[in-house]
Specification:
The chain has about 450 residues and is of the alpha/beta class. The protein has 13 helices and 19 strands. This is ornithine decarboxylase.
Length: about 450
C-alpha cells in the first residue's frame, strides 16, 4: 500500500525517528495530484512532553485539557501514559469515558455548566467539578448534590496569550462567602482551582495564585471542610522554543507548593495542561493553490498574494481565536536569496480569510508546499468546512522504539489504562531525529479496526 492511499487515521511506524519536515517531504513525494492539507503528528513529541512533565513537576498530576485538541489518538495515548483529563462538557466527558477512562480521572472543569450536563456527570460518576459563583452552587445542589466541588479563584492573567479572568473566577472575598454558602447548603468543597490564562509566559502568576489558594483552603479547613485538592489549571507553554519558560514556571511551582503545601499534608495537586502537550507535536502542510502578482503603484515594487488550501475557518482558526501568528516554513527547493513582500490567504471566498498580511518570501509557484510548525493547540478542535473546503487531517508517525512501548494505547477495545513503567523510564534522548533508512515502502500491519498502523518492512 502506498502512503498516499493510507486512510487519515493511520499511524506510520518508522524504523528510526524522523522530524516532521522529513516526514512531510516523504508524504509529498507520493502525493502526485492529491494536494489536500494534512498534519504530520509526532506522537513521540507527546510522549516526551509527558516525560518532561513528570520529571519537572513530580508532585503535579497532569489532566489534559480536551478542548485544546480533542484528537482521539492523543486522548488514547495520554490515557495510556497515565494522565487525567479536564473536560468542559458532556460531549468531552463521553468521548473520554468511551475509551475506558474511569470517572475518577476526570475533572469537570467548567465553572458555568448546563444543568443537563451536570446531571449527566452525576449519572456516569464524574463527581469532581468546579464552580465560582452562588448561582452555580445552587444549580449543582439541585442536579448533583453529592458533587465534590472545587472553587475557582480569579488570577492575574495579564501576561497570558488568552485571558480568562474577565469571565471566570471568584475574588478572595467572594470565595470566602461561597465557602460559607456551601456549608449552609451542606455541599462538599474539596479544594481550590485557578487558571493563569492560556499560554502564560511568567511564573509569578502561578506563585501568586498558589499563595491565594493556600489562604482560601485554610479558611475552608477552619469551617470543617477537608480541602485536599489543589488544581493549578492550564497556561503552560508548549511551542518549540518555550522550554525555558516551562522550566522557569515548573521551578517556581515546585518551590511554592513545597512551601505552602508540604508533602506531609497529603494534598493532591493536579493541573490542566493543553497546549503544553500538543502544540509542537502538530506540523501542518499546505499547498499553494493560486497566486497573484501585484505592482505597487507608488514604488513599482512587485508584491505577491498566495492562496493556500487551508485557512482561518479551518486549521488556522487559531489566528482569530488564539491570537497566534503562524510562521510559514519552506522546503530547501523553494528557498532563495531573493524575497518579495507577500501575503498568504486561505481558500474560502471570505476576505477575512488571511493568514499573513505582510511577510518576506521568495517567489513561490502554484503547487509548492508550505509547512507550519506548532499547530497542535486550538486548531483542528475549532475548525469547520466553510465553503465545503477541507481542513488539515492528521497523519501520525512514531519510531518503532516508542511504538513497541505504547502500541496497546491504540487498541480498539475500551480498557482501564495504566501507567506503563517502561515508558516513564525513557528520556528525551531516547528519540533522536537522525534519519538512517529509506522510509519506503510503508506497508499496513493488522491492528485495531479504527486505526491503520503502517510499518517499514
Amino acid at each position: 500500500m502506498k502512503m498516499h492511499l493510507i486512510k487519515e487515521n493511520a499511524i506510520v511506524v518508522t524504523k528510526t525517528a524522523h522530524t516532521a519536515e522529513e516526514f512531510i517531504q516523504k508524504k509529498i513525494e507520493l502525493l502526485k495530484d492529491e494536494v489536500e492539507p494534512f498534519f504530520a503528528v509526532d506522537l513521540e513529541d507527546i510522549c516526551n512532553k509527558h516525560i518532561r512533565w513528570l520529571t519537572s513537576m513530580p508532585r503535579v498530576t497532569p489532566h489534559y485539557a480536551i478542548k485544546c485538541n480533542d484528537d482521539i489518538n492523543v486522548i488514547k495515548l495520554l490515557a495510556y501514559l497515565g494522565a487525567g483529563f479536564d473536560c468542559a462538557s458532556k460531549g468531552e466527558i463521553k468521548k473520554v469515558m468511551d475509551l475506558g477512562v474511569s470517572a475518577d480521572r476526570i475533572i469537570y472543569a467548567n465553572p458555568c455548566k448546563q444543568s443537563s450536563y451536570i446531571r449527566y456527570a452525576h449519572e456516569v460518576g464524574v463527581d469532581v467539578m468546579t464552580f465560582d459563583n452562588e448561582q452555580e452552587l445552587l444549580k449543582i445542589k439541585q442536579c448533583h448534590s453529592n458533587a465534590k466541588l472545587v472553587l475557582r479563584l480569579v488570577t492575574d492573567d495579564s501576561n497570558a496569550v488568552c485571558r480568562f479572568s474577565m469571565k471566570f473566577g471568584a475574588d478572595m472575598n467572594t470565595a470566602r462567602k461561597l465557602i460559607d454558602k456551601a456549608q449552609e447548603l451542606d455541599m462538599e468543597i474539596i479544594g481550590v482551582s485557578f487558571h493563569c490564562g492560556s499560554g502564560q509566559m511568567t511564573s509569578k502568576a502561578f506563585v501568586d495564585a498558589i499563595q491565594n489558594a493556600r489562604m482560601i483552603m485554610n479558611y475552608g479547613n477552619k469551617l470543617g471542610f477537608t480541602m485536599k485538592l489543589l488544581d493549578l489549571g492550564g497556561g503552560f507553554p508548549g511551542n518549540t522554543g518555550t522550554e525555558e519558560y516551562f522550566a522557569e514556571i515548573a521551578s517556581a511551582v515546585n518551590a511554592t507548593i513545597d512551601e505552602h503545601f508540604p508533602e506531609n499534608e497529603n494534598v493532591r495537586i493536579i493541573a490542566e495542561p493543553g497546549r503544553y502537550y500538543v502544540a509542537s507535536a502538530y506540523t501542518l502542510a499546505t499547498n499553494v493553490i493560486a497566486s497573484r502578482e501585484m505592482i505597487d503603484p507608488e514604488t513599482g515594487a512587485v508584491k505577491y498574494m498566495y492562496y493556500i488550501n487551508d485557512g482561518v475557518y479551518g486549521s488556522f482558526n487559531c489566528v482569530l481565536y488564539d491570537h497566534y501568528v503562524p510562521e510559514p516554513c519552506l522546503f530547501d527547493k523553494n528557498k532563495s536569496n531573493d524575497s518579495y513582500t507577500s501575503s498568504i490567504w486561505g481558500p474560502t471566498c471570505d476576505g477575512l480569510d488571511c493568514i499573513q498580511t505582510s511577510i518576506q518570501l521568495p517567489k513561490l509557484e502554484i503547487g509548492d508546499w508550505i509547512y507550519w510548525k506548532n499547530m497542535g493547540a486550538y486548531t483542528i478542535s475549532a475548525a469547520v468546512q466553510f465553503n465545503g473546503l477541507p481542513f488539515g487531517k492528521p497523519l501520525y508517525f512514531m519510531s518503532k522504539q516508542f511504538w513497541t512501548s505504547v502500541k496497546a494505547a491504540f487498541q480498539t477495545a475500551p480498557r482501564r489504562y495504566h501507567i506503563d513503567a517502561s515508558i516513564l523510564r525513557l528520556n528525551s534522548t531516547d528519540c533522536s531525529n537522525e534519519v538512517e533508512d529509506d522510509m519506503l515502502p510503508w506497508l499496513p500491519e493488522d491492528f485495531a479496526e479504527d486505526t491503520t498502523v503502517v510499518t517499514i518492512q
